[in-house]
Amino acid sequence: MQARSDETLRWQFFEQYARFSETAVVGSALFVGTDDGRLYAFAEPG
Q1: What pTM was estimated for this model as a whole?
Q2: Does the structure show a pLDDT above 70 at 4?
């Protein structure tokens, strides 16, 4: 979960079964790996 500078919610993500392992920021995108081998990417549209 990330908040904007005005403290409004920017995005939220819930994965019930996986545990998160590594994260990386590339440009304006956030990449999150899970222990079951999945990779999720988050970015602003556009």
Answers
A1: 0.61
A2: no
